TrEMBL record:
<feature type="compositionally biased region" description="Basic and acidic residues">
    <location>
        <begin position="45"/>
        <end position="54"/>
    </location>
</feature>
<feature type="region of interest" description="Disordered">
    <location>
        <begin position="33"/>
        <end position="54"/>
    </location>
</feature>
<feature type="compositionally biased region" description="Polar residues">
    <location>
        <begin position="33"/>
        <end position="44"/>
    </location>
</feature>
<protein>
    <submittedName>
        <fullName>Uncharacterized protein</fullName>
    </submittedName>
</protein>
Length: 54
């Protein structure tokens, strides 16, 4: 049945889309984690208005 095939394809596509979205989110989270684990050389150079480092 054509409609059955179309429905199956639609489900496949939606599953793929969510998987891609999850993968993208995981990549973004891991890059955030990586930057958080880096030695804060940059944040050490940033100065707050009162003169102290962040």
């Amino acid at each position: 049945d054509f409609h059955q095939v179309a429905r199956r394809l639609a489900r496949l596509f939606s599953v793929n889309r969510t998987a891609v979205a999850w993968k993208k989110m995981a990549v973004e989270c891991s890059s955030i984690d990586r930057s958080a684990q880096l030695p804060n050389t940059e944040s050490g150079t940033l100065k707050k208005p009162d003169g102290g480092a962040y």
